[in-house]
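Hi L.,

You mentioned the student needs an example of a multi-chain input paired with its predicted structure. This one should do, with 561 residues in total across all chains.
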Amino acid sequence: MSGERPLRLGFIALNDAAVVIAAKEKGFFADEGLDVELSRQVSWATVRDKMSVGALDGAHMLAPTALAISLGAAGAEPTPLVAPLALNLNGPAITVASRIAAAIGPGSTADGLARLVARRREEGASPITLAVVFPFSVHNYLLRDWLARAGIDPDRDVRLTIAPPSRMTELLVGGIVEGFCVTEPWDTAAVAAGAGVIAVRGSQFWPRTPDKVFAVTESWAAKRPDELQALLRAMLRAGAWADEAANRAELAALLAQPHYVGADAAVIETSLEDMVFHADGASAPQPTHAGWLLSQMMRWAHIPAEVDIEAVARRVYRPDLHAIAAEALGLPTTPLLEVLEGFAEKASFRLPTAQDHAVNARLSRNPEG
Amino acid sequence: MRVLVVDPDPARAALVAEGLSGVEPLEVRHALLFREDEAALFAPDVIVVASDSPDRDTIESLREATAANPRPVVMFVDRSEPGLAEQAVLAGVSAYVVDGLSKARVRSVLEVAMSRFQLMNGLRQDLEKAKADLASRKTIERAKALLMKERGLEEEAAYRVLRKLSMDTGRPLGAVAADLVAFAGVLKGNAS
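Structure written out for the whole complex:
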């Protein structure tokens, strides 16, 4: 059913590429008659460029990056993408350097870090430097929200920088950064190396944190609907396989290979514990998740206030495409989230009111502007 | 010329250095990995990065974030990816070197990148200034309208009041107008 050349799917070396990798390695793509070539990418900028020019047919992608590329906010011209599948829930964590862990103290809030930030400022010391993997990442927005809840302004009180996931431990050891938010296995890897301590897991302050999606361009999805459905069916089956506790050791061994994630298998297996690929409708792309991410992008002025959050969320996130594939496999339909679950906000977050939510957050942040 | 080459492959840094021989003064530094602090100390005139370097995201975000100190970025690209280089340029890379390029052309590519960068940077600054000027002019219009309404002045007289305020306080007309508009809001109870 494939065209003249294999389908090329890009991924970055992270645990949450598991579904794509398992679909290839466990033969789920082959079962659908698909000839798929996985191509490891080294930076999100390269994934973005390759998607835009069609050098990749689809990719494992940071959910906010898919939104940003569609809006043309992540550099370059807008390339409308669709996300018909969520690749994982949970997985990001905030890790701080062992050196400063004692000063921060226990607890999953950033209150201890806020005290350290204030002390550094009084001493005239250089601000705390924290790294995320890409500006348009759930990591950036989780970290910013975590900081802001403790009264730390992420743009003024600390330095936020960008670094590749696989280099986080090294940067922590070298004192270049003092903390980071990245998806596993790179948090557990830093802990295993004795360099860091996990301050909070995404799942602790937002159970079922969204993270990566599978994305294709809107034009590709329109031109090759049958292949897209076949890809989705294969990845749904791969997600179910990857979720089985009995398969986790095998999955860890698969991911550990140098051409995939390239980290220690035991570290990967530990770091997979928290992650969900399939259970309870985890793979359905929820427009409400996209809405929250867009509202955060707006809150921190990464996208203009004029962007219509609900319209963009519904255009990029396509639970309808997911539902067709799920139905073909006899899987139950996943209900769409009306209210963002588990996320401790003063007011509950709903897609139709996302715009007001974002604009208010932006105003309350910068009253003089 | 100070050139920082971030590339997992040392051969390409050597190509850059050879291609630039004769340029004086010249310092080409090769780094397997990008380190922001080292780069800041070295203060390169141009950064050359391989498209297959994991540090591309870092360098790209620096270009966005450090508006105060931007650098032209040249990218090495593999010729097997048609269109990729053009896309990278759209995304803000100043120029690209197709892998396998002869050393004879390295110098011209870097020079073109630097001049293109200066041009783009100049245009961007002009655009930002134009936007700021426009915003300031709108504020002045609003301040004039306020004065005309509240004090029953003609347009010309309202403008003179603003100009006098500006001269008396030694602050730009736009800033004085913004204050006036803001204070009017407070007095009317619009701001809390």
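You could point out the following to them. The domain at 92-205 of chain A is CATH 3.40.190.10 (D-Maltodextrin-Binding Protein; domain 2). The first helix of chain A runs from residue 18 to 25.

Best wishes,
N.
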